[in-house]
Specification:
By secondary structure, this protein is of the alpha/beta class. It is 30% helix and 25% strand. It has an 8-stranded mixed beta sheet with strand order 3-4-5-2-6-7-1-8. Helix 1 crosses helix 4. Bound molecules: adenosine-5'-diphosphate and magnesium ion. Adenosine-5'-diphosphate binds next to helix 1 and helix 2.
């Protein structure tokens, strides 16, 4: 599925619908260049999990943890650069903790990425235009895409458009 947005608030709202659809145990991988909107998307996702307070980029640390309807584990592998094995054991614990794991720059530590995930690739298509491509590895994460698609179809409060 491809969604086009034209403002940060729209990308955030798409994230919010996705967060609202999460039931626990999901892994969401965020690919995209610096400034694409990965953290903006995660801020919306946190709102969809009823996380209070600001969500900031975890770039200078590997993980920030937030308490919401479900726990949100926001990872940024940007600086791991292949040293991922060092945190391997602990990472598995987060995956099985029943929360929602969001991973920015998963390709920096592919050995840590689990088999089942929702991959969101964000690319800039202009100064404020973004294209968000959603791909699921399994039925459980495909259900998130279906829920997101339904939420967007039902809303009149965002101009984010779904391209079939
Ligand atoms: P990343 O985490 O991918 O490095 P950020 O979310 O931190 O990216 O930053 C995205 C930047 O792009 C922000 O400054 C945001 O205001 C800007 N921006 C402009 N248009 C959009 C859009 N449609 N969606 C998301 N961000 C946008
Ligand atoms: Mg970021």
């Amino acid at each position: 599925m491809l969604i086009k947005t034209n403002a940060p608030e729209e990308t955030s709202q798409v994230g919010r619908y996705l967060g609202a659809a999460c039931r626990g145990g999901e892994t969401i991988l965020l690919e995209g260049d610096l400034g694409a909107g990965k953290t903006t998307f995660t801020q919306g996702l946190a709102a969809g999990l009823d996380v209070d307070g600001p969500v900031v980029s975890p770039t200078f640390i590997v993980l920030r943890e937030y308490e919401g309807r479900l726990p949100l584990y926001h990872f940024d592998f940007y600086r791991l650069e292949g040293s991922g094995r060092a945190v391997d054991l602990e990472f598995d614990d987060y995956l099985s903790a029943g929360g929602v794991c969001v991973i920015e720059w998963p390709s920096s530590a592919p050995e840590l990425v689990p088999d089942d995930y929702l991959l969101v690739t964000i690319r800039a298509a202009g100064p404020a235009a973004r294209e968000l491509v959603f791909a699921a590895s399994d039925a459980r994460h495909q259900a998130l895409i279906d829920a997101l698609s339904a939420a967007l179809a039902a809303t009149t409060t965002t101009a984010a458009t779904t391209v079939p």
